[in-house]
Write a structure and sequence with these properties.
The protein has 4 helices and 9 strands, in the order ααααβββββββββ. With 337 residues, it is an alpha+beta fold. The strands form 3 sheets. The chain has a 4-stranded antiparallel sheet, with no helix packed on it. The chain has a 3-stranded antiparallel sheet with strand order 1-2-7, with no helix packed on it. A hairpin with a 2-residue loop joins strand 4 and strand 5.
Length: 337
């Protein structure tokens, strides 16, 4: 038998250690283990990349959501500001309507209902103004605050609407008209009495007209003037009434200072007074204006006397009367539009 006859074959196909005492070599690690480690490394890198991408995506989405929220909040604030501006304009319009209404109801000035409604309106107005001030001092507004402002303005509008309805009702009942009629009756009675008195005075004045021939006037005119001193076509807009005339030469008239008194009578027979009184026929007669001139027996042309308008004037026939030294110089009528 040779030297290898006593050695048994290894179950793994390698010779078993023999009597020679030599140790068999260790088996090598398979190549597949290295591939596995490489695969695990790649997977780990991919996981890191995926995790990083997820974190980046989450941060990006959070920033985007925040930007969207900021944009939405800015848009909401812009809408609230726009709505508040509309409410403020509505409030100003209501105040203009109320002011105009106040000016139209003079005839019911003492009406208790008017006072009650006016007080309600003023109270509601103060609430709106308080809310407006509060909103003005805030950088951001809430829809609840704007709704509160809208509700208060709605209350204000309802009060104004009720106010208009009540005034319409009063007008329908002719309360204001009856009061105006009573005033007109009283005024007509006063004017009738004044016309009668004026007629009596005119009768007395007519008795002395012949004596006025000692000092004559010619070229009498009556001209309405505007605030610039120019001729005004409509007497209702006049600020002054100008009477112009000429005193011709009259050697029989004593020379010296002459005070000319003007009486201007409206179409209703009312004296447009304001310059005191002058003596006539043993009585004191009211005048509209007066002017002192120095008369030397020679003609004086372009004499003007002004009367400042202090009452409403209406179109019609106006009478100009001039007096001096207890005589009536003239009486002329002028139709003004």
């Amino acid at each position: 038998m040779d030297q290898y006859s006593n050695q048994r074959p290894s179950p793994f196909g390698q010779p078993a250690p023999g009597a020679s005492g030599q140790q068999a070599p260790r088996p090598r690690k398979p190549r597949q283990d290295k591939s596995k480690r490489t695969m695990l490394g790649v997977i780990a890198v991919l996981l890191v990349i995926i995790l990083g991408a997820g974190v980046w995506f989450a941060i990006s989405m959070a920033a985007k959501d925040k930007a969207i929220a900021v944009e939405r909040q800015a848009r909401e604030q812009a809408e609230l500001d726009k709505e508040q501006a509309l409410m403020n304009a509505d409030f100003d319009d209501l105040n203009r309507q109320f002011t105009a209404l106040e000016g139209q109801r003079i005839e019911i000035r003492n009406d208790s209902l008017k006072r009650e409604l006016s007080e309600k309106y003023q109270a509601a107005k103060m609430k709106v103004e308080k809310l407006q001030q509060e909103l003005k001092n805030q950088k951001s507004k809430s829809s609840a605050e704007i709704k509160k402002l809208k509700d208060e303005i709605a209350t204000l509008r309802a009060i104004l609407k009720d106010y208009v309805a009540q005034i319409a009702k009063l007008n329908e009942e002719n309360k204001a008209l009856r009061a105006e009629n009573e005033q007109i009756k009283s005024e007509n009675s006063r004017l009738t009495s004044q016309v009668e008195q004026t007629s009596k005075e005119n009768e007395k004045l007519n008795e002395r007209m012949n004596l006025a021939e000692k000092l004559n006037v010619t070229g009498v005119s009556l001209t309405p003037l505007n605030k610039k001193g120019k001729r005004e076509k409509k007497v209702s807009k006049a600020k002054q009434m100008m009477v112009t005339f000429t005193i011709p030469q009259n050697n029989s008239t004593p020379v010296g200072e002459k005070v000319i008194y003007l009486r201007l009578i409206s179409p209703s027979g009312q004296l447009l007074g304001g310059a005191g009184v002058f003596p006539f026929e043993g009585a004191k007669v009211e005048c509209s204006a007066k002017k002192a001139i120095e008369y030397a027996g020679e003609e004086i042309g372009g004499i003007t006397i002004y009367w400042d308008v202090t009452t409403a004037l209406t179109p019609g026939s106006y009478t100009v009367e001039l007096f001096t030294e207890g005589y009536r110089l003239t009486s002329r009528s002028f139709d003004l539009k």
